[in-house]
Amino acid sequence: MPYYQTWEEFARAAEKLYLTDPMKVRVVLKYRHCDGNLCMKVTDDAVCLQYKTDQAQDVKKIEKLHGKLMRLMVSKETHSGSMETD
Amino acid sequence: MVLLENDAFLTELTRLFQKCRTSGSVVITLKKYDGRTKPVPRKGHPETFEPADNKCLVRASEGKKKISTVVSTKEVIKFQMAYSNLLRAHIDGLKKKDKKSKGKKTKAT
């Protein structure tokens, strides 16, 4: 399973994958303080997108994407109207 | 798997992060939830369940201990703010870049 090299591509692919089937997609976040790295995975059990980082500047991006996907999950709309570009 | 209220979940999540500072990992999972409490009925059986569209499930674990909570539209704003703060506060063991980057300043409340 490949790790994305750029955050932009990963975030775009993750949101796209979620919008194709919201009920199937899950988001997993794994943090290891002892190793100093953070790994994010978005999957629908068929496709798996992963991003790994050890940079503090990526924490904010990951946290924002998490929040965005959370809001998408609780909103009743099937397609989000405004796409924020980070 | 312990199902908690949003606030209790955030408290426990803080504790999970603190526990894993020396070893281990914290795994957080986020998934859309339609409010099902009964298993999916077999073929031929009527589906009497009305799926809700405004909830999501958040789970966290440090390997052994597992916690979870359900967030709905009404709670998401409050939960998401607290959750973001928590992540940013605890996920701090990563490398920092030296060069100045023009990041957006967060509003002070």
From TrEMBL, chain A:
<dbReference type="GO" id="GO:0006614">
    <property type="term" value="P:SRP-dependent cotranslational protein targeting to membrane"/>
</dbReference>
<dbReference type="Pfam" id="PF05486">
    <property type="entry name" value="SRP9-21"/>
</dbReference>
<feature type="domain" description="SRP9">
    <location>
        <begin position="5"/>
        <end position="73"/>
    </location>
</feature>
<protein>
    <recommendedName>
        <fullName>Signal recognition particle 9 kDa protein</fullName>
    </recommendedName>
</protein>
<dbReference type="GO" id="GO:0005786">
    <property type="term" value="C:signal recognition particle, endoplasmic reticulum targeting"/>
</dbReference>
<comment type="subunit">
    <text>Heterodimer with SRP14; binds RNA as heterodimer. Component of a signal recognition particle complex that consists of a 7SL RNA molecule of 300 nucleotides and six protein subunits: SRP72, SRP68, SRP54, SRP19, SRP14 and SRP9.</text>
</comment>
<dbReference type="GO" id="GO:0045900">
    <property type="term" value="P:negative regulation of translational elongation"/>
</dbReference>
<comment type="similarity">
    <text>Belongs to the SRP9 family.</text>
</comment>
<dbReference type="InterPro" id="IPR039914">
    <property type="entry name" value="SRP9-like"/>
</dbReference>
<dbReference type="InterPro" id="IPR039432">
    <property type="entry name" value="SRP9_dom"/>
</dbReference>
<keyword id="KW-0694">RNA-binding</keyword>
<dbReference type="GO" id="GO:0008312">
    <property type="term" value="F:7S RNA binding"/>
</dbReference>
<comment type="function">
    <text>Component of the signal recognition particle (SRP) complex, a ribonucleoprotein complex that mediates the cotranslational targeting of secretory and membrane proteins to the endoplasmic reticulum (ER). SRP9 together with SRP14 and the Alu portion of the SRP RNA, constitutes the elongation arrest domain of SRP. The complex of SRP9 and SRP14 is required for SRP RNA binding.</text>
</comment>
<dbReference type="InterPro" id="IPR009018">
    <property type="entry name" value="Signal_recog_particle_SRP9/14"/>
</dbReference>
<keyword id="KW-0687">Ribonucleoprotein</keyword>
<dbReference type="InterPro" id="IPR008832">
    <property type="entry name" value="SRP9"/>
</dbReference>
<keyword id="KW-0963">Cytoplasm</keyword>
<keyword id="KW-0733">Signal recognition particle</keyword>
<dbReference type="GO" id="GO:0005829">
    <property type="term" value="C:cytosol"/>
</dbReference>
Automatic annotation (TrEMBL), chain B:
<keyword id="KW-0733">Signal recognition particle</keyword>
<dbReference type="InterPro" id="IPR003210">
    <property type="entry name" value="Signal_recog_particle_SRP14"/>
</dbReference>
<dbReference type="GO" id="GO:0005829">
    <property type="term" value="C:cytosol"/>
</dbReference>
<keyword id="KW-0963">Cytoplasm</keyword>
<comment type="similarity">
    <text>Belongs to the SRP14 family.</text>
</comment>
<protein>
    <recommendedName>
        <fullName>Signal recognition particle 14 kDa protein</fullName>
    </recommendedName>
</protein>
<dbReference type="Pfam" id="PF02290">
    <property type="entry name" value="SRP14"/>
</dbReference>
<comment type="function">
    <text>Component of the signal recognition particle (SRP) complex, a ribonucleoprotein complex that mediates the cotranslational targeting of secretory and membrane proteins to the endoplasmic reticulum (ER). SRP9 together with SRP14 and the Alu portion of the SRP RNA, constitutes the elongation arrest domain of SRP. The complex of SRP9 and SRP14 is required for SRP RNA binding.</text>
</comment>
<keyword id="KW-0694">RNA-binding</keyword>
<comment type="subunit">
    <text>Heterodimer with SRP9; binds RNA as heterodimer. Component of a signal recognition particle (SRP) complex that consists of a 7SL RNA molecule of 300 nucleotides and six protein subunits: SRP72, SRP68, SRP54, SRP19, SRP14 and SRP9.</text>
</comment>
<keyword id="KW-0597">Phosphoprotein</keyword>
<dbReference type="GO" id="GO:0030942">
    <property type="term" value="F:endoplasmic reticulum signal peptide binding"/>
</dbReference>
<dbReference type="GO" id="GO:0008312">
    <property type="term" value="F:7S RNA binding"/>
</dbReference>
<dbReference type="GO" id="GO:0005786">
    <property type="term" value="C:signal recognition particle, endoplasmic reticulum targeting"/>
</dbReference>
<dbReference type="InterPro" id="IPR009018">
    <property type="entry name" value="Signal_recog_particle_SRP9/14"/>
</dbReference>
<keyword id="KW-0687">Ribonucleoprotein</keyword>
<dbReference type="GO" id="GO:0006614">
    <property type="term" value="P:SRP-dependent cotranslational protein targeting to membrane"/>
</dbReference>
